[in-house]
Amino acid sequence: MRPTGSPASSPWRQRALVPVLVSLCMLVAIISSLGAPLIPTIAAVDHVSVSDAQWSLTVTMLVGAVATPTMGRLGDGPHRKKVILTGLGVVSVGSLLAALPLGFACLIVGRALQGVGMGLVPLAIATARDSVPPQRARSALSTLSLTTAAGVGIGYPVTGLLAQTLGMYAGFWFAVIATVLAFVAAALVLPKTPQRPAHPMDVPGALLLALGMGGLLFALTEGENWGWGSPRLLVLGAVSLLVLLGWALHGLRTAHPLVDLRLIRDRTVFAAHLTTMMGGIGMYLLISLVTRYVQTPSSAGYGLGASVVVTGLILVPFSVGSLAAGRVVRILVRAQTPVRLLPVSCLLSLAALLTFVFAHGHLWQIFVTMTLAGLGVGMNFSVTPGLVVASVPAHETGSAMSFNQVVKYIGYSAGSALSAVILQAATSPGQGFPPESGYRTAGLTGCAVWAATAVIGYVLIRTGLRSGTRVGDTRPAAADMSAESEGLVPGAGTPR
């Protein structure tokens, strides 16, 4: 039972909990996307190259990939609220540093501190599992995950509009105000964490994951500048993979690892992580292609010559499609096992890329493409949290969802890098723009990724059902979560 007098026992706090958690996830998504539309402006204002300005986005992703699993493990103990508030405090300091005109170095430090905020998403999901009433748990988990996709579509146009009307630093001042408000709301509304034993922090695992993930993401983001066949890039990638292998072996031999990889043996969890990573690849591959294509001047023989503001607005249909997918999923799960929707989400994303490949000459066609992409990615991100949460013990929720976020960040970086590799390979020496055929090749490559993911997901689901395993049936998950939290069902939520 929840302790009497805790914040969660107040009716108004119970009503406000889900909106506050959603605002946290939306804030993280918007802040993480702040750097992308501003890269050319940052390069001009701070007198650095575009490749150096790219670090305003890269450093946030790097820090987020390292901070997320660490915060997830800390949040699985008795101090989750403190971890959330500390994370928001760090983000507010980072936003202030980025907002002050103190030079490029200060901006990068601020963006690095903002990356800590990415670890708030799995903690918000873990809080929803523990504290949201059973009848609202499924929709709350779905909405929280959807905001990570919908927020990107909101962050781009907001950033572009603020930069065009009020200057480069306006977006970061917006982040300062939003983070401070989120801190106050979280301090007032977040409930106390259920009493669970505190386990020692897996410091060696955290260091190995930080080095491996940092090196891998650094290689993906710097590949275009160094050259994808350069020796130093290949060495860095190989060493990073070896470090990650060492991290995995260490985790399998540790009683309380940073991320319990043994849970991934569950077919549902594996399918959820796989499609999440592929969803990240497909999402950022398409976003990178579309934003670059629409800003290409028509003098190149193609392109729409759109401004930064218009480029941001084309992502609004993506957010709308993501939010609509959440409502569709809530209807479909009444009759279908949720895990069956994973291949469907892949097919919708495949349709989005096919639309872009064969119809991209007009702005309205781009809107259709992004709406379909939002439906596909939104369905994926709407289903996966429930699948993971229903398949792991309650005390592993923060860690498991943190790993899900990490593979998503890997997908984001890989998708962005993949689009850059293909377009760079298609560009002739001395030419400023790739031929239009380069976009077609990149789009078809993305189609192949989605088709393969749909087939693998279908095989995993079908094999699990044939073996008699209860694969991804989260319809009773809310009841299981409630029973476990009240101590009525020993072992509810254990891996199946």
- CATH top level label of the largest domain: Mainly Alpha
Which of globular, elongated, flat, extended, rod-shaped describes the shape? globular
Q: Architecture of the largest domain in CATH?
A: Up-down Bundle
Taken together, the total number of domains comes to 2
Kindly name the structural category.
Answer: mainly alpha
Cα-based radius of gyration, to the nearest Å = 22 Å
Instruction: Report the span from N to C terminus.
Output: 25 Å
Provide the fold topology.
Layout: H1 11-32, H2 35-45, H3 50-53, H4 55-75, H5 80-99, H6 104-114, H7 120-131, H8 134-166, H9 170-189, H10 203-226, H11 231-252, H12 267-295, H13 308-313, H14 316-332, H15 341-358, H16 363-391, H17 397-426, H18 436-466, H19 477-486
Helix pairs in contact: 1-7, 1-8, 1-9, 2-8, 4-6, 4-7, 4-10, 4-17, 5-6, 5-7, 5-9, 7-8, 7-17, 8-14, 8-16, 8-19, 10-11, 10-17, 12-15, 12-16, 12-17, 12-18, 14-16, 15-16, 15-18, 17-18
Description:
Helix 15 packs antiparallel against helix 18. The two termini are 25 Å apart. The chain has two domains: 9-193, Growth Hormone, Chain: A (Up-down Bundle), CATH 1.20.1250.20; 265-496, MFS general substrate transporter like domains (Growth Hormone, Chain: A). The radius of gyration is 22 Å and the shape is globular. It has helices spanning 11-32, 35-45, 50-53, 55-75, 80-99, 104-114, 120-131, 134-166, 170-189, 203-226, 231-252, 267-295, 308-313, 316-332, 341-358, 363-391, 397-426, 436-466, 477-486. Mean pLDDT is 79; it is low at 1-8 and 468-496. With 496 residues, it is mainly alpha-helical. It has 19 helices and no strands.
